[in-house]
Amino acid sequence: KQEVTQIPAALSVPEGENLVLNCSFTDSAIYNLQWFRQDPGKGLTSLLLIQSSQREQTSGRLNASLDKSSGRSTLYIAASQPGDSATYLCAVSKDSNYQLIWGAGTKLIIKP
Amino acid sequence: SQTIHQWPATLVQPVGSPLSLECTVEGTSNPNLYWYRQAAGRGLQLLFYSVGIGQISSEVPQNLSASRPQDRQFILSSKKLLLSDSGFYLCAWGAGYEQYFGPGTRLTVT
User: Please, what is the average pLDDT of chain B?
Assistant: First the structure.
């Protein structure tokens, strides 16, 4: 059974720092991995999607990497800003119906 | 462009009462549709998904049910709510490998 773990559960850093969020999964046979952002009491916004054949994806100050063999993904945020404060969730696809298995998220606080 | 609507945004219901949450999608046809529940401090749990009208797959046995009466309408229901049904309910639609989420419904069962 696929399990997704995100560490740390919460992270607080000063504005301007670069930071890394971690996601691990137990079954390396995935179709893809996605990173999402969730603001308090809101729905989710997709940030990056990495196909199983890819190693990384970049969007602006965000870079996500994928190492299938070790069951790990990282989300790198460069030059963090207070507006980056949110909960970041990773999810791996289960099968061709694109069902997602979710981590519990990392709550990120960027202090001005 | 595609949009997804959920209502109500918040709901407080007593134990044993019925539930109906609605989700509608605009700007796309024959999407995969999903209902998730997010408990406090936990990841999202897939409850139901649908690949077409009248086609519902359940991931977790419980007192909830889902229906898809129209192509872009997805309804989550319960005949009798339990305290453990409290949580944040999210509807999503899928296009290819990506899923797009609605704003969610905060359900509190008292």
Answer: 91
